[in-house]
Structure formats: structure tokens, C-alpha cells
Amino acid sequence: MDARVFSRMKGTKRYFRYGGMAVLLLTLLLLFATVRFDIKGHFDGLFLLKGGKGWKYELKDDLYVGDGDRVVYSIDFGDPRYRISRSLHKDNPGQPYLYYEWDAADGSGFIRNFLRNGTQLLTCFGRFLGDDNENVHGLFVGGGLPASVTGGDNVFMDETGMAYFDGRRWYHVWCNVNEGLISAITHKPLPPSQWRFLGSKVLDESNKSLVISSSHEALLDGTPLRIDRYVYLNAGDTYFVLTIKITNTGHAPARYIYVYGDEPWVGNYGTSAGNVGWVKDRLIEYETEVDSSRYSYAGIFDYGNDAIGEGHDFTMTANFIEWFGAEKPSVYFSNDSGVLNDASGLKIPLSSNSRFIGLEWGPRLLMPQQTVYYTLAVGMAGHDPKTGFPVKPEVHINETQ
How far apart are CA 292 and CA 218, in angstroms? Predict the structure, then answer.
């Protein structure tokens, strides 16, 4: 072979070798320039999403409620730890137990509470995006697991927030919570997605009980408030206890309203059809305020509203929220979050697709270094076997709560 030809061939090989490396490097640079990597260490799968926070794509190892519409491609790895846990307990029928996963750094996770009859109550915390499209971190009910988020329809979304599985299907119990602070001065809301997440811990754990905390800081009218939250669960209970501790760590008084509520879509995700309010001794079919000194709990019942002729072909699923302590909230049922129209004296039926139960404490004044506590029980109600009317489970509050 002519030496010059051989030399040209060697040069061509070097060109393709180095040129190929350059193309690969350029491809990687373009990939990193257009894809935002959000790897939390959950490894529930690999999910490619379009758009989001100025990027063309996002690559994630987990999905939250609010992500589903952006999914381009997904591989769900499932949860082998869950399958192992189930196999370990299959020889103990009738024994309730807890299975949970919690990411302390991210402030998100879920708890599966397996009840005595083999049914299951799933509660997700901090697995959703707020209305401002920012992640909510900490002990706030909401969100779902990747298989539910990417399911593509409301049947899959039944398994989000708090949900009940009776062995055949999932029933929606609570949705993403509408919770937060409102300035009593400017009336500006301050939702959890705008609070600074300080961290979370699993304080106590076993397959029978669980205690988790999350801590936050909210800047209200220039005054910092520290908010510590504690969730207590026991195997076999159809509720959890939530304690909220708010401390004014600033130098000026804070004037605020604290709100907790939900348009829960009880029974079937995506629809309020059939949802009416309930308290201990009656159904609530119209927008109204509940006397929280007379009643200590209220909820939504998927029964059908006679006031608008809905009939009673619904799931009969019911939830409840119970309040404790000397400071009573204002409690109301309405057709929309934060809006109660019964002040006009008109009877307005609960008829919207966002039928709402709300609790509000305040307006109140919190002095510097002063602390206030709110304690709630949030869960699913049972039924009277004779009447079918909802029955709240007996709630146990430990001294540490």
C-alpha cells in the first residue's frame, strides 16, 4: 500500500474517532442544557416530563400529583419492599399493621394502614404541587404514587390523598389539603408551598405505630413564624392525629388566620356529585356554618343531596375531621373554598363540583415568642349498620399529642 494512502486512512480513522467523541460530547452537552435532572433518590422509576421551570424536559425518579399531564415517557419500577412486607404479614390474618416510606430530606412519603379485615387505608403526605406549581414539603395530605399519577384518568386518581381499598376498588376519602396562613392585615394567603421547609424526622416507628414530624418557617407580614407539625398513626385506625405548633420567632406581633379545609371529592376522584355534609345528628345539604361549640367533628358523605334531587346511588364513603382544644375553629360547608354565601339568608344547596369543608381559627394575635397549638383528627368514618349514617371512630389522643 502506498504510504501516503495509508497515512490518509490513519487520519480518517482518527477523524472518525475524535469526531465521534465530539458528537457524543455535544449530544451530552445539549442533553444537560435542555433536561433538568430531579433525582431524589426514591428510584420509583424513571420519568421524562416535558417543560417545567424553564427547561425543555425534566428527568425524575418519582412523580407527584400535578406532574401527570407532562409525562412523555415513564418506567415504573414498582415497590419490591412493599411486596416483601405483604408476604411477611400474610400469615397473620386479622392483625393490623403499618407499612410506610418517608423521605426525611424531601418531606414526602406515604403510609399504608392495613386494617383488621384485610382492607387498606393509604395516606400520602407532601406528594403534590401547590396552586403555584411549587412542591409542597412536609406533613400535608395530598398526592399519590407514580402508578396513580400516570394512570391517565380519574379511576387511577382515586388512589391519591387519603384513599380506601375494600379489596375490589379504591375510594377517594381526602384530596390535596387546602391549608395555610392568611394575613389578618393584608388578607394575603400564605400556602405551605411558600413556607421554607426546615426538615422532617421519623420520631418513632414500628409496624403498629408511627410518629413523624416536619418543620417549616413562614414569613407573615415580615414576621417569621416557626411551624412544627406532628402526625401520629396506629395500625388499624382509620384516621391520623395531626398537631400543629406555631411559634412567633420574630420581634413583632403576628396577626393571622389559620385555615384547614378540602374539596375532597369523596367516593370518586374528580367529582363532588353526591357529596353532602354531615355532623353527629344530621346531614347538611346547604351552605352553612357549623356551631363548633356544639359539635366537635364534621365531614363529607357521598350519599346524594336531596336538595338538588341527586338520588342516592353513590358510594356511601364518608370522611371526618375532629377538632380539639379550647380554641374552637369556625367550621363551614360551602360550594367553594373560602367562600360562604349563607350570610344573605338564602338557602344555597351544595351543588358545585368543589363542595368544601373548611375550618378557620382567628383572626388572632400571636405575640413574640408565644406558641399556639392546634390538634385535629383526620380520617375515614364508618357507618351505622342499621341506618347507614356515618359514624366517627373513637379517637385516642395520647398525652404526648
Answer: 27
**Helices vs strands, H then E, count in the chain:** 4, 26
**74 contact partners, CB below 8 Å, separation of at least 6:** 45, 46, 47, 48, 63, 146, 150
Grid cell in block for residue 73: 415517557
Question: What's the confidence (pLDDT) of residue 49?
Answer: 66
Looking at residue 118, what is its pLDDT? 87
For residue 317, count other CB atoms closer than 10 A to its CB.
25
List of residues 6+ apart from 232 with CB closer than 8 A: 209, 210, 211, 240, 241, 242, 243, 398, 401
What three-state secondary structure class fits 21?
Answer: helix
Cell 415497590 belongs to 79
Owner of C-alpha cell 388566620: 257
Rounded Cα distance between 284 and 73, Å, is 45
Calculate Rg over the CA atoms of the chain: 25
The pLDDT tens digits for 145-201 are 876 666 555 567 899 999 999 999 999 999 999 999 999 999 999 999 999 999 999
pLDDT at 6: 37
- Whether 380 contacts 224, CB under 8 Å: no
Run of H or E including 88: helix 80-89
Q: What is the pTM of this model?
A: 0.83
DSSP calls for 309-375:
T--S-S---BEEEEEESSSPPEEEEESBTTB--GGGS---B--STT-EEEEEEEEEEE-TT-EEEEE
Do the beta carbons of residue 237 and residue 224 sit within 8 Å? no
Listed in sequence order, the residues at least 6 apart from 91 whose beta carbon sits closer than 8 Å to its beta carbon are none
The answer to whether 235 and 89 have CB atoms below 8 angstroms apart is no
Tell me how far apart the alpha carbons of residues 298 and 280 are, in angstroms, rounded to a whole number.
7
> Quick one: cell of 185?
392585615
Give the chain's end-to-end CA distance (angstroms, integer).
Answer: 88
- Per-residue cell: 348: 344555597
Strand partners, 336: 339
Question: Positive or negative CA dihedral for 116, 238, 166, 84?
Answer: negative
As beta bridge partners, residue 257 has 182
Q: What pLDDT, on the 0 to 100 scale, is given for residue 17?
A: 46
Alpha-carbon span 23 to 30, nearest angstrom: 10
